Structure formats: C-alpha cells, structure tokens
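Q: Can I see a sequence and its folded structure?
A: Here is a first one.
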Amino acid sequence: MFLLKLIVIFLVIFAISHLLGIILRRVLKTEKRKIRIHKPVNKTQKTVERVLLILFFIGLVIQTLDSVQIGGIPSLLITFIIVLNCYRAFMEWKYKKESKEHIITLSELVFFVIFMFLFFQLNIIDWLLA
C-alpha cells in the first residue's frame, strides 16, 4: 500500500509539473521541448554539472556511511536539486535570454521547493506509512 500511495503522489506531482510547463510555455510563447532531458548551453555548463553530480554522489556516500546522519540524505538531495537548477537557470539566462527557458527552469524549481516544503510540513510520510 505504501508503494502504491507513493507512486500516486509522484504521478500527481509529475502531472502538475508538466501542466505548469505547458502553461508557462504558452504564456511565454517559447518553443516546446521534444524531450524532457536537459541540454547544456555550452561545455562549461556540462562540466560544472558533472562536477556537481560527482560532489553529490560523494556526499551521498559519506551520508550513507555515517549511520547517525541518515536523515541528512533528503536534505542533501534537495540542496543538490536547488543548486543544480539555479545554476542551469543562470546559464540559460546568460546564454539563451531570448528563449526564456530560465523562467521555466526557475518556476519548476519553485514548484519543487513548495512541494518539498508541504511534503515535510504536512508529514506525508506518516500518511504513506499508515
């Protein structure tokens, strides 16, 4: 039952996020992306994102090995997602201003932060386990 509830929550969140992206693209009159995979604007961004990913995995290993700090893994993941998306939005703003992709990236990030805040404030995990 836990897994089913979790899957339903993620499907609803994915649907809302996708709908938000569609609405923003129509309002901002930007082109629709064919796939949801992010494409870096240049080699520097690609390199920095790889370094961030490596640092995240190193932090994840350290958090996992330190059995006292297991609760830090969600905060590490949330921090990684926030830093990565802020960097992506900055690079899109700096190199692709006319596409307005940075507005969509920041909007999706704000949605994610609000969702995470509500997820932990409303104690959704306890509801899932009930």
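Q: Show me another, different protein.
A: A second, unrelated one:
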Amino acid sequence: MAAIVMATVLVCLVTAAVGALALHLVRRRSLVWSVVVAALIPLVAVSASILLNVQLMFISTHDSTAVSVALACASVIGVLLSLVLGRRVAQGSRSLTRALRDLGSANRDEASPQSSGRPSGAPGEIASLATELELTRLRLDEAQRRATALEDSRRELVAFMSHDLRTPLAGLRALAEGLEDGVIQNRPAALRQMRQTVDRMTGLVGDLFELSRVNAARSSQSRTRSMVSLVELVHDVTAELDAHARRRGVTVRVEVEPGDDRLAVVGIADDLARALTNLLGNAVRHTAPGREVVVSADRGEDGRIHVSVTDGCGGIPDGDLERVFDIGWRAAPERSSTDAGAGLGLAIARGVIESHEGSIDIQNVPGGCRFGVTLPQQPVSDSA
C-alpha cells in the first residue's frame, strides 16, 4: 500500500509539473486553451497513475480496463464542458474588450449593441463587470453632454455679452462725439443718458462677477455661513421690489403661513437674497400689467423648505423649459432690449441655490410660470 501511494503521488506531481508548463505555454493564446488544459490535468494524472500501477502489478488488467473506460468517458465530458465554458468566458472577455474600446471612442453613440450591456451567457463576474462598465459609459455620456452644453452656454454668453456691451458702447461713442462737435443742444439730457448707459454696463459686468463668484462657491465652502430666516428674507426682497413692480402695474403678493416657524436655513444671507431678487425681478419683468406675482414659502412634511415665485408671463414653450437656467439664455429674441438684462439672473439664482445644497426648477402653470426652490432640512440644533 505504501508503494502504491508513493507511485501515485509521484505520477501526480510529475503530471502537475507538465500541466503547469502547458499552462505557461498557452498563456498568451485564447482562454479556451487554458480552461481545457486545466480540466484535463486531473484526468491525465489519474490515467497515468492507473497505468503505472498496472505496470507494477498493483492493479489487475481487468480492473484497470474498467477504470480506463470510465476515465475516457470522463475525459470526453471534461473536454466538451471545458470548451463550452471556455467559449463563454472568451466571448464575455471579447465583449468587454469591445466595450472598453468603444468607451474611449469618439463615436460611442454609433457602437454596436453587442459592445455594451450584459454579455449573453457570460459568467456572473464578467456579467457584473459588463453591467458596471455600461453604467460607467452612461455616466461618461452624460458628463460629455453636460460639458458640451456648458461649452455651448459659454459660447452663447460670449456672443450675447459682446452684443450687449457693443451696443451701449456705440451709443456712448455717438453721444461723446455729439457733445464734442457741439451738435447736441440738450447737454444735461445727453449726460443723463450717458450715466444710465454706464449704469447698465456696470450691471452687466456685476452680473458676470457674481456668476463667477457663485460658481466658485459651489466647490468652496470657505465663506462664513449663519442661520438665515427665509420668511424675513422674502419680506425684505418683496419690499425692495414693490415700488418697481407698482411702476410696471404689477402686484406682488406674499403667501407665508403664520406661526413661529421662521423657515431658517444655514447659508449666506446676501447670496440667498440675490437669488430671490433675481427670481422676483424676472417674474415682475415678464408679467403683464394688471396681473400679479405670488411669492410663497412653507415647510414640507419632510422638513425641507419650499419657496416659489409664480408670475403671469403667459408660459414658456416646453422645449425651452430646460434652457431657462442656462447662462446667457433669454426668451425674448430682441437682443437690443434695455430691459432684457444679460440673461444671467436665473443662472446666478441656480448657482446660489445649488451652492446651498438645494434645487430649483420651473414649470408652466395656468397663465404663467412657477419657479420652485427647495432647500434641505436643517438639524434641530441649528434651526433652533
């Protein structure tokens, strides 16, 4: 028995060494070869052990024949199953290779359906990897679309600002030349118009600076924040714009539930006031005379704070709703309107709200639009 064990162990060790060498030789070839070799090594080891024991007369020829037939059948089954498994793994690997290649391709949208998604019949690990790869591809596509949209917005902003600055500059030049040549008789009116033009240009530059500062604040929380009451903020902003609204024939109405809830949030009071001012000013500017703008604020059942500004603009086309907060976008096609602004007010408002971990959206309502702001719930210790 000791001799049988020693002979069997020796043959198995030699077969394992030969198998390792075979795996090393086929390591750069298809994965199917490695799977087949790995499946055949144990069968070869058993067959070699039986042959050696027969030669040493430890096992009879009759017994070895029966075992050899069983091993032959097992070898056929093992090879077939290894080929099937190897082909599945190889196909899954090739699918992942194509997906990775398409992931870095400039034409990912034109990739074949086989290059993405879950490979058919692949093992669980490869299928999971393919699923994660597909999710990564979708995230990259979304990031690329956002980058493209941002670049388009910046390009439009440069074009719009060039127009908005070039027009008043041309007017200033004409007034200056008229005053210099003495062709303008009403000098006080000309100077007053020049001052108004300079004020409008200053407002454009101020909007650009504010937008840059707000965008920088999204990635930096270094500015000091404190508790801010949105109830007080809404009343302050509406009081500041009430005179402007009345001059345009627009009524501003505030809807805040009475009570002790000040709707306090942790934030920067000046930035939040700027965002609400931009939203309310935009609503007043686009509301027809004789109609009203409604500003409401309350706390939802989930503890989050909701502020909405509803105007009487008549609504915005559904195709333009997604562009309302884009930099430089304006609904009015007339670029020369002195009351249109630079198209940065809503972009600044969105930047401020998002820097406070909130969200802002817009939807059409009967007769106009509603801008909705949602700010996160504050801890009890902070809101006290």
